[in-house]
């Protein structure tokens, strides 16, 4: 690990330490690490509009307990990482979405997922890590696919959670789920934002496993930590202007485990199956009853699955 980085205790998790990492490309990432520095490093990449705290502490801790050094970070444009101020023309999101769905190329976003994968590669270098295991969730899984294909020397094994390769003609997200994610809150005060987050948790989360009280506490914590809706939109545009990862998947030669929830209505399970089919030798695991989230109920099984995969 790079000894020049300065770490402070995380204000959110007693077993994590935080630091800022300047990537040298104009982006500074906010990073948390936990676990024994001598243990293998496991990089966690989060999804669209999601701060690193969406990786539940219980999930991180159970991987630490199974012998991993955990690194989680805020992607560019979210949380406490650099924000990308874009002065270009406004893009027509609906037009981009319809082109994306049938596999046509889009351009014009402030950045795309290739840039975000470059961020991850630079982070691995700047932290002085040679190779890491990676788990990417949702959009983070797309970033992880690009990272593994373009920087094979930096990735040992790959874990993908409720993600997609965005190949043309996959069943689209259910409209309610998609628009909950990119829709606007009814009001822009704290309560309006928290209610909006709560609605998202319920709409995309695992049916019957969303704890109302915990969800409110999480939403408030995230709101106070950082609220930057422009970043969520820009990350969504990044996905639309990246398009299909099918060709890249065929280049990935890492042992890969793809995990998906049977009740995921944001990215239906066929998205995960398409990724597993495209990556040579990838294993696919469907978790019954899980949605597009990581509720405590599924964490012992999930963390065990990934830990076994990386150790095998």
From TrEMBL:
Highest taxon of the source? Bacteria
* Matches recorded under Gene3D superfamilies: alpha/beta hydrolase
Q: What are the coiled-coil residue ranges?
A: none
Question: Residue limits of the AB hydrolase-1 domain?
Answer: 40-169
Could you state a single Gene Ontology molecular function term? triacylglycerol lipase activity
Q: Quick one: a GO biological-process term for this protein? A: glycerolipid catabolic process
Regions crossing the membrane: none
Listed A to Z, the keywords are: Hydrolase
- Name used for this protein in its record: Alpha/beta hydrolase
List the source organism: Acinetobacter tianfuensis
């Amino acid at each position: 690990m790079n000894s020049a980085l300065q770490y402070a205790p995380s204000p959110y998790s007693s077993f994590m330490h935080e630091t800022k990492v300047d990537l040298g490309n104009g982006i500074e990432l906010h990073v948390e690490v936990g676990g024994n520095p001598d243990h293998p490093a496991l990089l966690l990449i989060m999804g669209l509009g999601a701060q690193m705290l969406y990786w539940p502490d219980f999930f991180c801790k159970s991987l630490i307990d199974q012998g991993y050094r955990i690194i989680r970070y805020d992607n560019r444009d979210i949380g406490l990482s650099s924000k990308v101020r874009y002065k270009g023309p406004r893009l027509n999101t609906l037009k981009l979405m319809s082109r994306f769905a049938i596999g046509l190329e889009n351009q014009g976003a402030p950045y795309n997922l290739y840039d975000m994968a470059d961020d991850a590669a630079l982070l691995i270098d700047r932290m002085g890590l040679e190779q890491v295991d990676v788990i990417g969730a949702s959009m983070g899984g797309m970033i992880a696919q690009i990272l593994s294909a373009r920087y094979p020397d930096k990735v040992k094994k790959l874990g993908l959670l409720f993600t997609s390769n965005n190949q043309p003609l996959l069943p689209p997200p259910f409209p309610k789920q998609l628009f909950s994610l990119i829709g606007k809150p009814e009001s822009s005060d704290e309560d309006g934002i928290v209610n909006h987050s709560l609605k998202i948790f319920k709409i995309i989360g695992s049916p019957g496993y969303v704890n109302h009280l915990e969800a409110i506490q999480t939403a408030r914590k995230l709101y106070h930590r950082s609220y930057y809706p422009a970043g969520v939109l820009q990350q969504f545009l990044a996905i639309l202007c990246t398009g299909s990862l099918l060709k890249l998947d065929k280049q990935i030669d890492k042992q890969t485990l793809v995990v998906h929830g049977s009740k995921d209505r944001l990215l239906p399970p066929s998205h995960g199956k398409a990724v597993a089919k495209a990556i040579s030798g990838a294993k696919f695991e469907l978790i019954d009853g899980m949605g597009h989230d990581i509720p405590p109920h599924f964490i012992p099984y999930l963390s065990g699955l990934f830990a076994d995969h990386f150790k095998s």
